Amino acid sequence: MKKDIMKVSLGIAVVMILALFLSGNAFSEEKSCLGESMTITGTIAADSQIIDQDGQIYMLGETDKAQALSALVGTKVELKGTVLEKMGGKEISVTDYKVLTE
């Protein structure tokens, strides 16, 4: 009986460790874009934001190029920059952009 309890306990421990490992990998893949240079295509929204094609919202960082974008609300653009986690959301520090024509 003691052996059965130990086998069950060991099995539960293995399952829990495996679950923690797999959830950690999923979390790291989700965050993999943070801190990396990337390109985002989307529409400039009010409040210094861009909404990409998947509906993800990024705040525009405080750069000269981002300030120029604030006059383009409703315009589809392609941004290049670095994405960082800021105040529970994502922020892109814009290094370059171009206005897209439909």
Q: What about the largest sheet?
A: 5 strands, mixed, barrel
Number of strands: 5
Which structural class should the secondary elements be placed in? alpha+beta
How much helical structure, as a percent, in the residues? Answer: 25-40%
Distance between the termini: 72 Å
Strand order of the largest sheet: 1-2-3-5-4
Radius of gyration, taken over Cα atoms and rounded to an integer in Å: 22 Å
Shape, per Cα inertia axes: rod-shaped
Poorly predicted runs are 25-32
Q: Please give the count of helices.
A: 2
CATH second-level architecture of the largest domain: Beta Barrel
**Mind telling me the CATH class of the largest domain?**
Mainly Beta
Task: Tell me about this structure.
- The chain has about 100 residues and is an alpha+beta fold.
- The protein has 2 domains: about 1-30; about 35-100, Beta Barrel (OB fold (Dihydrolipoamide Acetyltransferase, E2P)).
- It has helices at about 1-30, 65-70, and strands at about 35-45, 50, 55-60, 75-85, 90-100.
- A 5-stranded mixed beta barrel has the order 1-2-3-5-4.
- A hairpin with a 4-residue loop joins strand 2 (about 50) and strand 3.
- The longest helix is centred in the first third of the chain and has 29 residues, at about 1-30.
- Residues about 25-30 have low confidence and may be disordered.
